[in-house]
Write a structure and sequence with these properties.
The complex is a heterodimer of chains A (289) and B (272). Chain A is built from 10 helices and 10 strands. Chain A is an alpha/beta fold and 289 residues long. Chain A has a domain of 121 residues: P-loop containing nucleotide triphosphate hydrolases (Rossmann fold). Chain B has 272 residues and is mainly alpha-helical. Helix content of chain B is 77%, strand content 0%. Chain B has 10 helices and no strands. The radius of gyration of chain B is 27 Å and the shape is extended. Chain B starts with 20 loop residues before the first helix and ends with a helix. Classes of the chains: A alpha/beta (289), B mainly alpha (272). The interface between A and B is medium-sized, with 30 and 20 residues. The complex binds adenosine-5'-diphosphate and magnesium ion. Adenosine-5'-diphosphate binds next to helix 3 of chain A.
Chain lengths: 289, 272
């Protein structure tokens, strides 16, 4: 029997009542802060227009003139064959890779690569889960989750769980419990199984209190059961907290089960954009022909 | 049909291939240069044979090692070790930010990177004895000059290897920090440094070993420590004292190397 316990400072009792009063993953949009930035509640979570990316000056583009818009709260799957540029597209949406042309708007605000502050702010509102969990080895699970709080507060107190404010530690514990890993808070991140690591990465994204989650083949390196669990976690979070979810998947059943809409890449362009209701497995498969 | 007596003549590779004319030329040039260098290096069998009785005499005078100046010698050994520790630690502290500026993945600008790399290379290529003479001339005889030399030496050594360790870090976790919206310092402290840590510790311990060895030599030019004692006893033909000092140096270097490999195994395997 493992008891769920937070590694707390001596003399601090973890009170479940206290934790239950913690805010939901995404607090209600604050009209003051959002309004003055020109975002309205109707602004789509993601809007890209005419996006083009090529690696190297002479090569042909990975894809070109990609445009789509994802309304807040929608669950979208991006599918396509190997090397069609799904990962590149998702990274470009946060300018982790710089596109060659096109505009990106996140939650109604233009993602301008030249302004470091706006870039950081808009990135902070999106939790990004990578194909490889990308946790920092040697640090504890709780410290890794806590890093998500840099979306809101910056400074040395967000670097390690030992230095963090108790509200932040509590919230990190809460996020870890959302992925049912509270009992591993003190474990080193490189001593976890693949599925556990990926769930910690999800908890780190939740720690950002994101408005949207982007996930790049988040279950590709997991066994089917662990993969199913992680996808369930995403779908629950998206439904319960109204998060927008954009995920890349090779798994057509996942796309049909967990997404409301499918975007398909083929031959360097956005070849498919359809709600999952009308799409059968067969027509998705044709994308891979 | 196949010729069993003389199989596979066609596909068989030749045992020897004639060297490429250019490599042959280069080899001949090197051989010529080496023979010329032998004479410049002053190698002379005659002098070696004449020197043998001297070597034997000095060797004989070394046993038994002297015990008359044990206390001041031990104090000098301690000072040598302390110089090495202080020089290494301060050097490591200075190396880290320089290495970050010199690493491709974290430098604020390629020009900064080139400048810092240039500085580190310059510091490294100037030999430590030259630095020691320079510091002795500017701050005077004594351990301070030696410590400054060791700091500079450590920066030259660690600046380069730290930068390489930082460049070799997996790009994933830093990218994840960027995606969160963390700033450059956050990314370095929270992702890059913890990931480079085993490599940094390894290099740091090598730097300590190196500093202990070079701090011995620094004393010879008056930069403090046991080297000065060694120079004095050699000048006064007290070879028995010199033997004691050499033994002490041997024990110190061995102890530091043993400790360092012990720490290396412990820290790199352990919890970070
Ligand atoms: N950093 C890079 N430099 C050069 N080419 C790249 C880089 N990243 C991706 N590519 C190329 O872009 C194409 C799309 O890659 P990726 O987005 O990873 O595809 P997917 O995720 O759909 O499998 C591939 O052909 C890949 O080789
Ligand atoms: Mg991919």
């Amino acid at each position: 029997m493992t008891t769920l316990h937070a590694p707390v400072r001596p003399g601090f009792e973890p009170a479940f009542g206290h934790r239950a009063r913690l805010p939901p993953v995404r607090p209600q949009a604050d009209p003051d802060t959002d309004a003055h930035r020109g975002a309205s509640p109707e602004s789509p979570a993601v809007r890209v227009e005419g996006l083009t990316k090529r690696f190297g000056r002479t090569s042909r583009p990975v894809w070109s003139d990609v445009s789509f818009s994802v309304p807040t709260g929608q669950r979208v799957a991006i599918i396509g064959g190997n090397g069609t540029g799904k990962s590149t597209l998702l990274r470009c949406c946060l300018r982790l890779i710089e596109p060659d042309a096109g505009d990106i708007h996140l939650h109604g605000q233009k993602l301008d690569g030249r302004c470091a502050r706006t870039l950081r702010h808009l990135r902070s509102e999106v939790g990004f889960v990578f194909q490889k969990h990308n946790l920092v080895p040697r640090l504890s699970v709780l410290s890794n989750v806590l890093h998500g709080s840099m979306a809101r507060t910056r400074g040395p107190r967000q670097w390690l769980q030992s230095l963090a404010r108790s509200e932040d530690r509590d919230y990190a514990m809460y996020c870890l419990e959302q992925v049912r890993l509270g009992h591993l808070a003190e474990r080193r991140a490189d001593h976890l199984s693949g599925g556990q690591s990926q769930r910690v990465a999800v908890a780190r994204a939740l720690m950002q209190r994101p408005r949207a989650i982007f996930a790049d083949e988040p279950v590709a390196s997991l066994d089917p059961q662990a993969g199913e669990e992680v996808m369930e976690t995403f779908a629950d979070l998206a439904r319960n907290h109204g998060l927008t979810l954009v995920f890349v998947s090779h798994h057509l059943e996942h796309a049909l089960t967990y997404a409301e809409r499918v975007l398909g890449l083929r031959d360097g362009r956005l070849d498919l954009d359809a709600p999952t209701g009308r799409e059968t497995l067969g027509s998705l498969r044709s994308l891979y022909d | 049909m196949t010729d069993l007596d003389n199989p596979a003549q066609d596909g068989m590779p030749a045992r020897f291939r004639p060297p490429h004319p250019l490599s042959a030329l280069l080899f001949a040039l090197f051989l010529g240069f080496f023979l010329w260098s032998l004479s410049s290096a002053g190698i002379s069998i005659g002098e070696l044979i004449e020197g043998l009785p001297n070597m034997a005499r000095i060797g004989a005078e070394m046993v038994p090692p002297a015990t008359d100046r044990l206390e001041p010698m031990l104090r000098s050994v301690l000072v040598t070790f302390q110089m090495a520790v202080v020089g290494t630690v301060i050097g490591l502290i200075l190396s880290l930010p320089l290495a970050v500026l010199a690493a491709r993945n974290h430098t604020p600008h390629p020009v900064v990177r080139a400048a810092v790399r240039g500085l580190i290379s310059f510091v490294r290529t100037v030999p430590d004895l030259a630095w020691a003479l320079f510091f002795v001339a500017s701050v005077g005889l004594g351990p301070f000059a030696g410590t400054l030399t060791l700091i500079v030496d450590t920066v030259g050594f660690c600046g380069r290897f730290f930068a390489e360790a930082i460049e070799e870090v997996d790009r994933g976790p830093p990218e994840a920090m960027n995606a969160i919206g963390a700033g450059p310092l956050d990314v370095i402290v929270c992702a890059t440094l913890p990931m480079a840590l085993p490599s940094l510790i390894n290099t740091g311990l090598f730097a300590l070993e190196k500093a202990v060895r070079s701090s011995v030599v620094l004393g010879l030019v008056g930069a403090g420590g046991i080297g000065a004692e060694l120079a004095t006893s050699m000048e006064m033909f007290r070879y028995d004292q010199a033997a004691t000092i050499v033994l002490m140096i041997f024990v110190l270097v061995m102890a530091v190397e043993t400790l360092s490999s012990h720490l290396r195994a412990k820290l790199i395997g352990g919890r970070g």
